[in-house]
Specification:
Radius of gyration: 34 Å
Distance between the termini: 70 Å
Structural class: alpha/beta
Strand content: 15-25%
Largest sheet: 6 strands, parallel
Number of helices: 20
Number of strands: 23
Oligomer: single chain
């Protein structure tokens, strides 16, 4: 019982920290020195008193250089034993204590528990699979970051990430994602929870210029809980911000779109809500129904591509209406305006809409400098192209492979169109569980509209049994049950290659794949499949809206299926001129109440999509296959398009 009590006391002593461990080590050294000194005093007559003997013992315990200086069997024996104990007890114990302390110190430093000393930085609250992409796009953005730094009064871009647990593995993952962009002076990791005030204070949230909340992760089991955590975090920042007199701009990705108003009520400052899953679902649904649309979205919603969206405020430019502004920007396309008295963007405004100093124009351009409004250039003579027909979708049957929380949203988007679609959802998940999730989807319960197939489509024989080649379009969803982005992409790729193998040279259905990681996108044949990198799109939007808040509502309106959206027009028979300039197409589109933003050309069997080619760009009239416009078309119809051949695809698939 006594020994147990001693062990317990020593254990509690050691756990109190470095100082107590050093005291214990000193006590052990003192015990050995005193014991050996008293033993030498008792057995060797050369020592006159206890103090001399104990000092003699202490010197030999702490310094092995005294070994060999003693004479006599007793002194030599005790000296040797004490010197050996000095190596084991004194040096060994001291090194062990200091090593353990240094390791703990390094781990504490790596975890990032000290408060950052930054101001006007960009703060990312939370870590998910989108976080490295957000950081990379912030670091890669050039001019927009410069304007952000100028407006916020900062000299350098600083990014602070608050993660639940920061360790060497997390730091290595981030460093690997950023590659040559990694700079520990610009990117800082801190440990802590955004739900706790001490975690927020650790990242100096009240001194931040912008706060990004990435939202629910790919395989989050309860994304609704993640939304609640974001709302609580916004409320905490708002409460403390009112006390500090500064509330930073916040950009939050929410799973449920109907929680946007709740989030805005919780936050007292400027808040941009990005409906991440809703946005990804819209992109997948629209690109499934309209081949060629993903190329346009990817160019607008990604870095290192030709064109992007820009917002520039008018100052002293000599333009009075939208029509003049379009003629004064030959290297950019004016697609909208944000009036100075409101923050609501107006896309595809009429040419005679008046604009004033202080209004902001919305552009599609390659560089911000191209958005400068110059002198108005009179339009040249127009080569008329009669019969601009809408390019109608020829999709009637859709096969969805896989299941995730986005599937009900995709179904709702697909069924919102007037064209009569027949949709089959095939996955190994029991149909009864899926029905619970889609009960609230309008139109999903209509007989024959949405049918459930229980099948392991990873098996090539089973996948072949539902005849994917008989559908007009196949949409492959990244499956959350895989739990990891790389594994989910591997399953999607396997299913895609199986479908390609089954086609055996046939034209096949239009294939759309939900891909999680950018490095896997080249594995899908771009001519057969649209690989939609929805996480990259959401990351781009979160990062760019943090730098330029006006983009939030623009992205939202541009991706909606109703109202102003991206449409394709097929010009009819051409005439008068052998060549046609883009400025002429823009004039004809404006006369139809639409905004021309690009063209699809076909030459020598090569089909090319070009956004904002420039007012002076010209092509042979017969090369212009389609004109890309912004226009209002509440719902696409399934009317016959003279430039498309409708394929009849009887479905021969088992149903449950």
């Amino acid at each position: 019982y006594v020994l147990s009590g001693i062990r317990f006391t020593v254990e509690r002593w050691l756990l109190r920290g470095l100082h107590y461990r050093l005291i214990l080590a000193a006590a052990v050294v003192a015990f050995v020195a005193i014991s050996a000194g008293l033993l030498a005093l008792l057995l060797d007559t050369k020592f006159e008193d206890a103090g001399t003997a104990i000092w003699w013992s202490f010197l030999r315990l702490t310094d092995p250089g005294y070994l060999g200086d003693d004479e006599g069997a007793v002194s030599v024996t005790i000296s040797t034993v004490v010197t050996v104990l000095g190596y084991i007890v004194f040096l060994g114990l001291l090194i062990a204590i200091l090593t353990q302390w240094m390791n703990a110190l390094i781990l504490r430093v790596e975890s990032g528990t000290t408060r950052v000393a930054f101001k006007n930085h960009i703060l990312i609250l939370g870590w998910n699979h989108r976080t490295p992409s957000i950081v990379l796009e912030l670091l890669q953005t050039g001019g927009r970051v410069s304007r952000f730094l100028k407006d916020s009064g900062a000299h350098n871009l600083r990014i602070v990430i608050l993660a639940e647990q920061v360790d060497a593995d997390l730091r290595k993952e981030l460093k690997s994602s950023l590659e040559e962009r990694w700079d520990d002076r610009r990117v800082v990791l801190r440990s802590g929870s955004p739900l706790k005030l001490d975690g927020l204070e650790r990242v100096a949230f009240h001194d931040a210029a912008a706060v990004i909340l990435p939202g629910a992760d790919f395989a989050t089991a309860r994304p609704g809980v993640a939304d609640s955590e974001i709302i609580k975090t916004l409320a905490s920042i708002s409460q403390c911000g009112r006390q500090a007199g500064h509330t930073p701009l916040a950009v939050a990705a929410l799973y449920n779109a109907n929680r946007g108003d709740v989030a805005r009520r919780a936050y007292g400052g400027e808040l941009e809500v990005i409906e991440a899953d809703q946005l990804a679902s819209r992109l997948m649904a629209q690109c499934t129904l309209q081949n060629g649309l993903w190329t346009i979205y990817w160019e607008l919603f990604s870095l290192n591509q030709d064109n992007a969206l820009y917002v520039r405020e008018l100052d002293a430019e000599h333009v009075t209406d939208i029509g003049q502004a379009r003629l004064a920007c030959p290297e950019a396309v004016v697609i909208g305006v944000i009036p100075s008295n409101t923050r609501e963007p107006i896309l595809n405004p009429p040419g005679d809409m008046q604009i004033n100093s202080g209004d902001a124009l919305i552009f599609i351009a390659r560089h911000f400098a191209d958005c400068r409004v110059g002198d108005v250039v009179a339009p040249a003579s127009i080569a008329q192209m009669s019969g601009w027909d809408p390019v109608a979708s020829d999709i009637e049957t859709v096969l969805i492979l896989g299941w995730s929380r986005k599937v009900p949203k995709v179904l709702a988007e697909l069924l919102s169109y007037e064209q009569q679609l027949k949709i089959d959802v095939a996955t190994i998940m029991p149909a009864s569980e899926r029905e619970i999730s889609i009960d609230s989807v309008p139109g999903a319960q209509q007989a024959g509209t949405v049918r459930q197939i229980e099948i392991n489509f990873m098996d090539p024989d089973l996948l072949a049994s539902i005849h994917p080649e008989n559908y007009d379009a196949v949409l492959m969803i990244a499956r959350e049950r895989m739990g990891d982005e790389a594994i989910a992409d591997a399953a999607t790729l396997s299913a895609y290659l199986t479908i390609v193998t089954l086609l055996t040279g046939a034209a096949g259905p239009h294939v759309v794949a939900d891909v999680m990681e950018e490095e896997n996108e080249p594995l899908f044949d771009a001519e057969r499949c649209d690989a939609i990198l929805s996480p990259m799109v959401v990351s781009y939007i979160l990062s760019q809206v943090a730098l330029e808040p006006q983009l939030g509502l623009i992205f939202q309106e541009l991706t909606e299926s109703s109202g102003t959206t991206i449409l394709f027009r097929s010009p009819g028979p051409k005439t008068e001129k052998a060549e046609c300039r883009f400025s002429e197409l823009a004039e004809q589109a404006a006369a139809r109440g639409e905004t021309s933003i690009g063209v699809v050309t076909s030459s020598a069997g090569v089909r090319q999509t070009r956004l904002n080619p420039g007012a002076d760009a010209r092509w042979a009239c017969e090369e212009i296959e389609q004109v890309i416009v912004l226009g209002i078309e509440n719902r696409p119809t399934a009317a016959c398009n003279p430039h498309q051949v409708k394929r009849e695809r009887p479905i021969a698939a088992p149903r449950t």
